Amino acid sequence: MALRNILKDGDAALLKKSRAVTDYNARLHKLLDDMRETLIEANGLGLAAPQVGVLRRAVLVVDTSIESEDVSDQIIELINPEIIASSGEQDGAEGCLSAPGIYGMVKRPQLVKVRATDRYGKEFEAWGEGLTARAFCHELDHLDGIMFSTYVSRYLTDEEMDELASRREGEDA
Question: Is 139 an annotated catalytic residue?
């Protein structure tokens, strides 16, 4: 496995639509393994192949409903994913590994169901709620060349982000 470079906002590749994965081979598995290592190293909640310069419909999302000491156990690999159902609404802070230090308020569904294939081409469905639903939507947008900033209703200041972080720390205590 190897760490991949995460493209930053302004890179033209981030605005391109990705092509479907058709070959479930060692090359795809290496990409997914590298993306997993890159996501963990970056301490993110999701990573799409276009963010590492590969215009294929592959994403990784951390399922925050799974409680595990090892974040690797929480990562869901989604190949050729599509949202097949959603409900509710949440309005919350969102950021992106391709736009470090920038956060904004974004409305997303509260509950999302995706259909995808795994690294071997086997189809499955997965539900995400709350933060996981947000990550599903965010990463699938990357596959269509859409950055989260498209949906930002208001950008957050550093002070607001510090306040949100301290509230979360209080909830974890």
Answer: yes
User: CA-to-CA distance for 42 and 143, rounded, in angstroms?
Assistant: 19
CA distances from 106 to 52, 97, 110, 154, 173 (A): 23, 16, 12, 8, 27
- Per-residue pLDDT reduced to its tens digit, 64-82: 888 888 888 999 999 999 9
**Contact in structure between 140 and 59 (CB atoms under 8 Å):** yes
Q: Is the pTM of this model over 0.70?
A: yes
Torsion angle defined by CA atoms of residues 94, 62, 42 and 33, in that order, rounded to the nearest 10 degrees? -140
139, 160, 169, 171: which is the annotated catalytic residue? 139
Domains belonging to the chain, first-starting first, are 12-172 (3.90.45.10)
